[in-house]
Amino acid sequence: MFDLTGTTSTSSAPITGKGALDGIRVVEMGQLIAGPFCGQLLGDMGAEVAKLESPGVGDPMRHWGQGEIPTWWRVIARNKYSVAVDLRSEEGQQTARDLIAKADILIENFRPGTLEKWNLNPVDLMAANPGLIIVRVSGYGQTGPYASRAGFGGIGEAMGGWRAIVGEPDRAPSRMGVSIGDTLAATYGCMGALAALEARRKTGRGQIVDSTLYESVLQVMESLVPEYAINGHKRTRTGSVLPKIAPSNVYPCSDGEYLIGANQDAVFARLAQAMGQPELATDARYATHLARGEHQTELDQIVGDWTSTLKVQELEDLMIEYAVPAGRVYDAEDMMNDPHFVAREAIVRVPDAVLGEVPMQNTFPRLSDTPGSIRRPAPLEVGQDTSEILERWLAR
């Protein structure tokens, strides 16, 4: 365990607890994002995560990200131990079986059938360890006609409905900018593992958590399906606005952009006051939610014409004064210098043997009695913790 040192732009608090999952052992066999992010979440909550990596090669995630020295690995592999295991060899498969027999949770995000091919059939693993919970993250699930297909985050986003509604209406579907399909599947996998731990407390038995990319995306698609099934309405790409919800958009300022959400009647009245145009709140075209939705384009133009005469700070001061929900469109630099981020320790600096320290997001959500923490930095060498884990878990 180590102390995190804060600065004026990021801060941290001393680690005072071991986390809600202290004592839970996790074997992570996945790579890239969907499996490893699930492992990151469990590790942040206090679990001990033994990450199995191919000797010499390791997880390709070690090399992903921007810059001369990619830093994504430092985030997704924090709180983990790297154990070098060749899963394609009999010896490596036996080592994996031995570790899994001592584990509470196994995470994998290979194509369905891969574990079975490596003589790691979940049926056999759970026979040897009846309390084992296996989180299986895949593109399409462990069953169904598409189960054997190769899955990738973007494909899951497309199938789950996300890509069809993201972007400008006159252009091809856009991506989120982050690997949202992978992280959603990982998050639902983590949720499933936590639910399975509670079920095991009552029954003593483990179970399989089947988390898919496309279903995880589908879960957050709000009323997209019933809107079509009941009303025949298909959502389409609408850019930065929500149809019939106004004013709620990103508006130009003289030195940047600013997001305002004032679509409720009382809030819109306050915005009209801030604009020096209180008559807008009683104008029949804008007085109600439905009316503003019908006149969305012209209302956005009115608001945008006004915001463009102000600097971002001037607009923000007015929005705060009139209690209108609004905010800047942040980038990483904004986050690192924002006083609210600092006050809540949303970004911490993690010691790093190569880079000195790496600023990154803290652990979320926040638990009052058993908070998560970053107890150890990401392992920089493949297999650097092999001897320690084998000795502690298997007494080798």
TrEMBL record:
Keyword hit for Transcription: no
Domain of life: Bacteria
Molecular functions (GO terms): transferase activity
Gene3D superfamilies attached to this UniProt entry: Crotonobetainyl-coa:carnitine coa-transferase, domain 1 (3.40.50.10540), formyl-coa transferase, domain 3 (3.30.1540.10)
Record key words, sorted: Transferase
Segments traversing the membrane: none
InterPro entries per UniProt: CoA-transferase_III_domain, CoA-Trfase_fam_III, CoA-Trfase_III_dom3_sf, CoA-Trfase_III_dom_1_sf
Keyword Cell division in record: no
Stated name of the protein: CoA transferase
